[in-house]
Amino acid sequence: MSRVAYVQCAAGVAGDMLLGALVDAGANRDEVAAAIAAVGVDGYALMFERVQRAGIAATLANVVVNHNLDYNHDEAGGHQPAGGHGHGHRPAREVNALLTAAELAEPVRRRAQAVFRMLAETEGAIHGVDPDDVEFHEVGSVDAIVDVVGIAAALHSLGIDRVVAGPVATGHGTVTAAHGTLPNPAPAVARLFARRAMPTIGIDTPMELATPTGVAVLAALAESFGALPAMRVEAVGYGAGTADPRGRPNVVQVIVGRADDGEARLASAGRPAVQLDVNVDDITGEVLAHTITQLLAAGAHDAWVTPIVMKKGRPAHMVSAVCDPALTERVGGVLLAETGSLGVRAASLRRWPQTRVESSVDVDGQAIAVKLAAGRVKVEHDDALAAAVALGRPLRDVIADAERLGRELA
Question: What residue numbers bound the domain in which 212 lies?
Fold first, then answer.
């Protein structure tokens, strides 16, 4: 039985609203505050207040930031300039370094780093810069660090194994940000939607309902999007935005419960995906192996080759790849270019990937990447091979040591 948090975003989602909802659902406030303090940022105060939004009692996570540092939360629960640009901006590598050095529980660190990595990659793609060099502006200010680390700590406090989210509401018109007047939803939010193929719903309001921080948390941490998964509900929490618009409760709802892993995963909506296939009978095994490598490099979730028999009894191969719908053109282009096929087939499907996190272990001074999932440690083969060669040890022994260290880390 895994513990699940379902995030209902009918009024949008912002970092402070999600933090308030998790605390309202029972996350320990002292643990949240201690985790944030461990990061070592200053110039902020965090207070949790009981408020009402359109008749619903909720918790407001009020993050007050020194106006000389960066940004404060706006009335929509998002972020707006609060005293000039350029103060308190941190490049992504600095935020990651802060999180690495902080004395945090490992699940809290991994979740927080995953969110900021998602933000850095998204902002980097928009502005055409290396993700490590991204200066976060709104999403990199002190209040966003408080929100993200606080959310990660709250999930850990509640013992959450899986996060699932419903459709995310957005407003319309424009929003004001460090780069000027931008469309609503902001470019970073729109790109995050596309990256995870998130379901969305528009609301007739000019408010910034979906903020980069809130959407990045869902993009990085949510296992799937859709309807409430099958679960035994144990707690419900509501996190308030600062604004209290008439006739609409400006809250994020979090429903916490326990679900059987197998049944709940298949009962949930899963993630949309596309499978691309070509049949070829005139390329070598070396070219097939190279094609698989290029498909994975293009962003495919998986790629493989299946022996088949074509017309007139000719032996052949079917080359297949599974990818996000947004990457269909890119992955399909690689498939056609590398195989020389005259056409490609596509089929829509859904996938239920197991929640995993990427980390690293040290085997006799050699860093080896590992993937950690429930009951499983997967060692990165190339790293283990390089370590075995460098150490003069058998590969199987290095893999065994890396798996043992990975289990201890998990």
Answer: 2-267
